[in-house]
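Notebook entry, structure prediction.
Reason for the run: the old model in the group folder had no record of what sequence produced it. Starting over properly, with the input documented here first.
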Amino acid sequence: MEKRNLQSNVFSDTVMNNIQNLTDMSLDFYGTLIDNVLQNNSGTAQRVSQMSSNLMAPVQSMFNSDHCCPPKEECPPHCIASIHRKAMMGERIIVPFQVSNPCDVEKTYRVGLRPLHDQDGNTANSQPQLNKQQVSLPPHGSERVLMSLDTSKLGAGTYTAEIVLREKEYNQNICFTLDLSNHSGPTVTPHEEKKFKLKWQSWKTHFYCELPANQRHKG
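New structure, fully documented this time:
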Protein backbone atom coordinates (compact mmCIF):
# COMPACT_ATOMS: atom_id res chain seq x y z
CA MET A 1 0.00 0.00 0.00
CA GLU A 2 1.51 3.32 -1.07
CA LYS A 3 2.34 5.86 1.65
CA ARG A 4 2.36 9.59 1.06
CA ASN A 5 3.78 12.26 3.35
CA LEU A 6 1.20 14.63 4.78
CA GLN A 7 1.71 18.36 4.37
CA SER A 8 -0.03 21.33 5.91
CA ASN A 9 0.25 25.10 5.89
CA VAL A 10 -1.41 25.33 9.31
CA PHE A 11 0.30 22.80 11.64
CA SER A 12 4.00 22.67 12.50
CA ASP A 13 6.38 20.05 11.15
CA THR A 14 6.45 18.25 14.51
CA VAL A 15 2.68 17.91 14.63
CA MET A 16 2.58 16.75 11.03
CA ASN A 17 5.32 14.16 11.71
CA ASN A 18 3.29 12.74 14.58
CA ILE A 19 0.17 12.55 12.40
CA GLN A 20 2.26 10.95 9.66
CA ASN A 21 3.56 8.28 12.05
CA LEU A 22 0.05 7.45 13.26
CA THR A 23 -1.20 7.25 9.70
CA ASP A 24 1.65 4.93 8.67
CA MET A 25 1.02 2.66 11.66
CA SER A 26 -2.68 2.45 10.84
CA LEU A 27 -1.99 1.63 7.20
CA ASP A 28 0.54 -1.04 8.17
CA PHE A 29 -1.83 -2.63 10.67
CA TYR A 30 -4.94 -2.73 8.52
CA GLY A 31 -3.00 -3.62 5.39
CA THR A 32 -1.39 -6.61 7.14
CA LEU A 33 -4.73 -7.63 8.66
CA ILE A 34 -6.49 -7.63 5.30
CA ASP A 35 -3.65 -9.51 3.62
CA ASN A 36 -3.72 -12.22 6.31
CA VAL A 37 -7.48 -12.61 6.08
CA LEU A 38 -7.42 -12.87 2.30
CA GLN A 39 -4.47 -15.29 2.25
CA ASN A 40 -5.93 -17.63 4.91
CA ASN A 41 -9.47 -17.69 3.62
CA SER A 42 -9.99 -18.00 -0.11
CA GLY A 43 -13.78 -17.89 0.34
CA THR A 44 -13.50 -14.56 2.10
CA ALA A 45 -11.27 -13.26 -0.69
CA GLN A 46 -13.84 -14.26 -3.30
CA ARG A 47 -16.65 -12.59 -1.37
CA VAL A 48 -14.63 -9.39 -0.91
CA SER A 49 -13.78 -9.40 -4.63
CA GLN A 50 -17.43 -9.97 -5.60
CA MET A 51 -18.58 -7.24 -3.22
CA SER A 52 -16.08 -4.81 -4.74
CA SER A 53 -17.30 -5.66 -8.25
CA ASN A 54 -20.92 -5.14 -7.23
CA LEU A 55 -20.11 -1.78 -5.67
CA MET A 56 -18.12 -0.58 -8.67
CA ALA A 57 -20.45 -1.87 -11.38
CA PRO A 58 -23.00 1.00 -11.15
CA VAL A 59 -20.19 3.56 -11.22
CA GLN A 60 -18.53 1.96 -14.24
CA SER A 61 -21.89 1.66 -15.98
CA MET A 62 -22.59 5.32 -15.40
CA PHE A 63 -19.29 6.41 -16.94
CA ASN A 64 -19.50 3.95 -19.85
CA SER A 65 -23.10 4.81 -20.73
CA ASP A 66 -24.05 7.11 -23.59
CA HIS A 67 -26.67 8.65 -21.30
CA CYS A 68 -24.19 10.10 -18.80
CA CYS A 69 -23.97 13.85 -18.41
CA PRO A 70 -23.02 15.79 -20.47
CA PRO A 71 -24.81 14.03 -23.37
CA LYS A 72 -23.22 13.61 -26.76
CA GLU A 73 -24.44 16.10 -29.35
CA GLU A 74 -25.21 14.24 -32.57
CA CYS A 75 -26.96 15.37 -35.72
CA PRO A 76 -29.87 13.24 -36.95
CA PRO A 77 -29.23 10.98 -39.96
CA HIS A 78 -29.49 12.66 -43.36
CA CYS A 79 -32.47 10.52 -44.40
CA ILE A 80 -34.93 9.34 -41.77
CA ALA A 81 -36.94 7.57 -44.50
CA SER A 82 -36.80 6.86 -48.24
CA ILE A 83 -39.56 6.80 -50.87
CA HIS A 84 -39.00 5.16 -54.28
CA ARG A 85 -41.56 5.51 -57.08
CA LYS A 86 -41.77 4.30 -60.67
CA ALA A 87 -43.87 6.11 -63.28
CA MET A 88 -44.10 6.59 -67.04
CA MET A 89 -43.61 9.86 -68.87
CA GLY A 90 -46.62 12.15 -68.83
CA GLU A 91 -48.07 10.61 -65.68
CA ARG A 92 -49.22 12.77 -62.77
CA ILE A 93 -48.27 11.04 -59.53
CA ILE A 94 -49.29 11.60 -55.90
CA VAL A 95 -46.94 10.44 -53.16
CA PRO A 96 -48.46 10.14 -49.65
CA PHE A 97 -46.50 9.89 -46.41
CA GLN A 98 -47.34 9.99 -42.70
CA VAL A 99 -45.71 12.29 -40.15
CA SER A 100 -46.02 10.84 -36.64
CA ASN A 101 -45.36 12.20 -33.14
CA PRO A 102 -44.04 9.55 -30.72
CA CYS A 103 -43.74 11.99 -27.79
CA ASP A 104 -46.09 12.74 -24.89
CA VAL A 105 -46.34 16.43 -25.83
CA GLU A 106 -47.74 18.22 -28.88
CA LYS A 107 -45.31 18.76 -31.76
CA THR A 108 -45.40 21.12 -34.73
CA TYR A 109 -43.30 20.43 -37.81
CA ARG A 110 -42.74 22.60 -40.86
CA VAL A 111 -42.80 20.66 -44.14
CA GLY A 112 -40.81 21.79 -47.18
CA LEU A 113 -39.20 20.57 -50.40
CA ARG A 114 -35.76 20.81 -51.92
CA PRO A 115 -35.63 21.06 -55.75
CA LEU A 116 -36.06 17.96 -57.88
CA HIS A 117 -32.88 17.14 -59.87
CA ASP A 118 -32.17 14.74 -62.70
CA GLN A 119 -29.38 12.16 -62.64
CA ASP A 120 -26.89 14.77 -63.95
CA GLY A 121 -27.66 17.21 -61.13
CA ASN A 122 -29.73 19.60 -63.27
CA THR A 123 -32.89 21.16 -61.87
CA ALA A 124 -35.93 19.43 -63.38
CA ASN A 125 -38.37 21.34 -65.59
CA SER A 126 -41.27 20.31 -63.34
CA GLN A 127 -41.18 20.51 -59.55
CA PRO A 128 -43.27 18.64 -56.93
CA GLN A 129 -45.81 20.38 -54.72
CA LEU A 130 -46.98 19.73 -51.14
CA ASN A 131 -50.56 20.05 -49.96
CA LYS A 132 -49.39 21.18 -46.48
CA GLN A 133 -46.53 23.35 -45.24
CA GLN A 134 -47.02 22.57 -41.54
CA VAL A 135 -48.48 19.84 -39.35
CA SER A 136 -49.40 20.11 -35.65
CA LEU A 137 -49.61 16.70 -34.04
CA PRO A 138 -51.09 15.75 -30.65
CA PRO A 139 -49.17 13.30 -28.46
CA HIS A 140 -48.74 9.99 -30.33
CA GLY A 141 -50.73 11.38 -33.25
CA SER A 142 -50.01 11.35 -36.99
CA GLU A 143 -51.10 13.20 -40.11
CA ARG A 144 -50.87 12.43 -43.82
CA VAL A 145 -49.14 14.78 -46.26
CA LEU A 146 -49.42 14.52 -50.05
CA MET A 147 -46.73 15.39 -52.58
CA SER A 148 -47.84 15.71 -56.22
CA LEU A 149 -45.76 15.87 -59.39
CA ASP A 150 -46.71 16.37 -63.06
CA THR A 151 -44.17 14.49 -65.19
CA SER A 152 -45.40 15.76 -68.58
CA LYS A 153 -42.35 18.05 -68.90
CA LEU A 154 -39.82 15.46 -67.75
CA GLY A 155 -37.80 13.04 -69.85
CA ALA A 156 -36.98 9.45 -69.02
CA GLY A 157 -34.44 8.93 -66.27
CA THR A 158 -33.93 9.03 -62.51
CA TYR A 159 -34.87 12.07 -60.43
CA THR A 160 -34.22 12.82 -56.76
CA ALA A 161 -35.52 15.32 -54.23
CA GLU A 162 -35.78 15.73 -50.46
CA ILE A 163 -38.85 16.40 -48.32
CA VAL A 164 -37.71 18.39 -45.28
CA LEU A 165 -39.27 18.19 -41.81
CA ARG A 166 -38.16 20.77 -39.25
CA GLU A 167 -39.33 21.27 -35.68
CA LYS A 168 -36.85 23.90 -34.38
CA GLU A 169 -33.18 23.64 -35.26
CA TYR A 170 -32.56 20.50 -37.32
CA ASN A 171 -33.68 19.50 -40.79
CA GLN A 172 -34.80 15.89 -41.05
CA ASN A 173 -35.16 14.64 -44.60
CA ILE A 174 -37.23 12.12 -46.48
CA CYS A 175 -35.25 11.10 -49.56
CA PHE A 176 -37.42 10.73 -52.68
CA THR A 177 -36.37 8.90 -55.87
CA LEU A 178 -38.39 8.74 -59.08
CA ASP A 179 -37.65 6.38 -61.97
CA LEU A 180 -39.37 7.73 -65.08
CA SER A 181 -39.56 5.40 -68.09
CA ASN A 182 -40.58 5.93 -71.71
CA HIS A 183 -43.20 3.29 -72.38
CA SER A 184 -46.86 3.45 -73.31
CA GLY A 185 -48.13 0.85 -70.86
CA PRO A 186 -49.92 -2.39 -71.69
CA THR A 187 -51.53 -2.85 -75.13
CA VAL A 188 -55.26 -3.65 -75.15
CA THR A 189 -57.05 -5.03 -78.25
CA PRO A 190 -60.89 -4.77 -78.14
CA HIS A 191 -62.94 -7.75 -79.37
CA GLU A 192 -65.27 -7.47 -82.34
CA GLU A 193 -68.72 -6.70 -81.03
CA LYS A 194 -70.48 -9.17 -83.34
CA LYS A 195 -68.77 -12.05 -81.51
CA PHE A 196 -70.82 -11.23 -78.43
CA LYS A 197 -74.07 -11.44 -80.41
CA LEU A 198 -73.40 -14.76 -82.12
CA LYS A 199 -74.92 -17.66 -80.17
CA TRP A 200 -76.44 -21.11 -80.59
CA GLN A 201 -79.98 -20.86 -81.92
CA SER A 202 -81.15 -24.45 -82.10
CA TRP A 203 -80.02 -27.85 -83.24
CA LYS A 204 -81.42 -27.07 -86.69
CA THR A 205 -79.18 -24.05 -87.31
CA HIS A 206 -75.49 -23.48 -87.54
CA PHE A 207 -73.44 -21.99 -84.76
CA TYR A 208 -73.61 -18.58 -86.43
CA CYS A 209 -76.59 -16.33 -86.83
CA GLU A 210 -75.10 -14.66 -89.85
CA LEU A 211 -75.77 -16.02 -93.32
CA PRO A 212 -72.89 -17.41 -95.31
CA ALA A 213 -71.12 -14.81 -97.41
CA ASN A 214 -72.35 -16.32 -100.72
CA GLN A 215 -76.00 -15.96 -99.57
CA ARG A 216 -75.70 -12.62 -97.80
CA HIS A 217 -76.29 -10.47 -100.93
CA LYS A 218 -79.00 -12.59 -102.62
CA GLY A 219 -82.53 -11.36 -103.08
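Summary: The radius of gyration is 42 Å.
The old model has been moved to the deprecated folder.
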